[in-house]
């Protein structure tokens, strides 16, 4: 029986931001889609998800890459 936990083969040397990104990127595409982001941000309303996603998606391609995610996480740490 397969484990329901996300598989992280080697987390040694990864920082918390990279671990969070890999956990959010459910399909391992290298991007966080809006659908994946919605699942990650369960405490936000649909409107809040739209605003935060749009703010994070700097290049407007409809997905959040690691650099965009890292910038978002660093902004959150400063608050």
Helices, by number, come to 4
Molecular shape = globular
Task: Name the beta content range.
Answer: 5-15%
Rg of Cα set: 13 Å
Give a brief outline of the structure.
With 79 residues, the chain is mainly alpha-helical. Helix content is 51%, strand content 8%.
Would you write up a description of this structure?
The chain is mainly α and 79 residues long. Helices cover 51% and strands 8% of the residues. It has a two-stranded antiparallel ribbon. The longest helix is centred in the C-terminal third of the chain and has 13 residues, at 66-78.
Topology, please?
Elements (H helix, E strand, L loop, with lengths): L15 H9 L6 E3 H7 L5 H11 L6 E3 H13 L1
Antiparallel strand pairs: 1-2
What attributes does this structure have?
single chain; 79 residues; mainly alpha; 51% helix; 8% strand; globular
